[in-house]
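Posting this for the archive.
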Amino acid sequence: MPEVQIRKGEPVDRALKRLKTKLEMEGILEEMRRLRSHENPKERTKRKARAAAKRGKIRFRFTLPKAPEAASAPVA
């Protein structure tokens, strides 16, 4: 369970914002919203496609794309 330590003299609002950010990053809020209401098959497909796109974007970001190779043989 994520937790946030309130620092001495820190406003509660700022600590609450840190907690919300932490919950959002771990996907807990999204899962709570999803489980709260019924999700039809079309919404489920959209959600899974968004998640796959996000994973692909992260995977692309951390892998070096190959540079396009120049034509090795001259075209006549």
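Residues 24 and 31 are 10 Å apart (CA to CA). The radius of gyration is 22 Å.
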